[in-house]
């Protein structure tokens, strides 16, 4: 894919992918998923986690804020599973990606170093095999609009990923993702829809 150098953005994966490895009789099943929000990542992790497995460890890096990472060792010694999976995603320079690695214990303990290599290796080898896609950079925006503007504002927001929303007594507050290059246009559309009665801010 050709990407213009002046377009801010990052790489993600195009579609889910699954990869399996055996390490000293333990079975490691790595599954990668293109998740835009924590809600999507959480739903994916819950869907693929196997109750009968020894562990279901995971990590997630959002595209909107690559520092807002999440990871979990699911009972493995601290730092031996979730973090190596996270580091595998970072090593591939990907965002908007969730990876869950399921382990079925094979009877041989791997030790701290062995676990780090096994979880990180399974995740990395899974990601290496995925198809990549370029995504334009987004920022998180918060707006607050009067309730009588909700209809036309939702028509605008249907073009974006909503992160959170909260109804008040007289207004609606919504957080959503917008492309950096489109911020000015989106803000103007929201203000026009509310006849200037909208608060608009980029969330740092």
Describe it for me?
30% of the residues are buried. With 204 residues, the chain is of the alpha+beta class. The chain is elongated and about 65 Å long. It folds into 2 domains: 9-134, Ribosomal Protein S5, domain 2, CATH 3.30.230; 138-202, Alpha-Beta Plaits. A hairpin with a 2-residue loop joins strand 2 and strand 3 (26-33). It contains 5 helices and 11 strands. Belongs to the IMPACT family. It comes from Heterosigma akashiwo (Chromophytic alga). One of its GO terms (biological process) is regulation of translational initiation.
Key attributes of the depicted protein:
single chain; 204 residues; alpha+beta; Ribosomal Protein S5, domain 2; Alpha-Beta Plaits; five-stranded antiparallel β-sheet; four-stranded antiparallel β-sheet; 35% strand; elongated; Impact_N
């Amino acid at each position: 894919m050709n990407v213009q150098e002046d377009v801010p953005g990052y790489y993600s994966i195009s579609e889910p992918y699954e990869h399996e490895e055996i390490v000293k009789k333990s079975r490691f099943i790595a599954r990668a998923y293109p998740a835009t929000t924590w809600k999507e990542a959480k739903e994916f992790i819950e869907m693929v986690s196997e109750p009968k497995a020894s562990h279901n460890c995971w990590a997630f890096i959002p595209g909107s804020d690559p520092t807002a990472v999440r990871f979990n060792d699911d009972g493995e010694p601290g730092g031996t599973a979730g973090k190596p999976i996270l580091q595998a995603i970072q090593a591939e320079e990907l965002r908007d990606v969730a990876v869950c690695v399921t382990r079925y214990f094979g009877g041989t303990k791997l030790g701290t170093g062995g676990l780090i290599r096994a979880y990180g290796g399974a995740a990395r080898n899974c990601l290496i095999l995925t198809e990549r896609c370029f995504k334009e950079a987004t920022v998180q925006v918060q707006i607050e609009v009067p309730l009588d503007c909700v209809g036309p504002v939702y028509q605008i927001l249907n073009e974006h990923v909503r992160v959170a929303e909260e109804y008040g007594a007289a207004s609606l507050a919504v957080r959503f993702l917008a492309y950096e290059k489109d911020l000015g246009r989106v803000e103007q559309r929201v203000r026009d829809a509310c006849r200037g009665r909208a608060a608009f801010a980029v969330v740092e």
